[in-house]
Design a protein that fits this description.
Elements: E1 4-14, E2 27-32, E3 38-40, E4 51-60, E5 66-74, E6 79-88, H1 90-95, E7 97-105, E8 112-124
Antiparallel strand pairs: 1-4, 1-8, 2-3, 2-5, 5-6, 7-8
């Protein structure tokens, strides 16, 4: 895999699974290639269709092959996982860009906990 810079734009979410018993979720997204270095969006209150339009930059190393997206519902005491998705970086390297909805499958992939609209641009170093 090539090394370079990966620009990631978390555009929006749609139909995020509601984790709160009262009201809607307070979602945010953690983005990472390596678990030791995570970046995250701001938390948006009371929505299951959030719009972030937030930009992040990652350095991609030759052995990196997947980017992960974990969507959480922020609660006072803790966080509840809404869903996780991932994209193979090969999909970005082939065209230099990626613009699509990433599914957030439920455990075992039997249902869907929503979708995340992600745009990525790769610049080789």
């Amino acid at each position: 895999m090539p090394a370079g810079t990966l620009e990631v734009i978390i555009v929006e979410g749609r139909r995020l699974k509601d984790k709160d018993t009262v009201g809607q979720s307070d979602p945010y997204v953690e983005i990472y290639i390596e678990k030791g270095y995570k970046q995250r969006t701001t938390t948006l209150s009371n929505t299951n269709d959030p719009v972030w339009n937030e930009r992040f930059v990652f350095n991609v190393h030759p052995n990196d092959d997947t980017i992960h997206f974990a969507v959480y519902d922020s609660d006072v005491a803790d966080k509840d996982e809404i869903g996780t998705g991932k994209v193979k970086l090969k999909n970005v390297f082939d065209d230099g860009k990626f613009d699509d909805w990433v599914k957030l499958p439920a455990h075992l992939g039997l249902s869907n906990h929503g979708d995340l609209h992600v745009i990525m641009n790769f610049t080789p170093s």
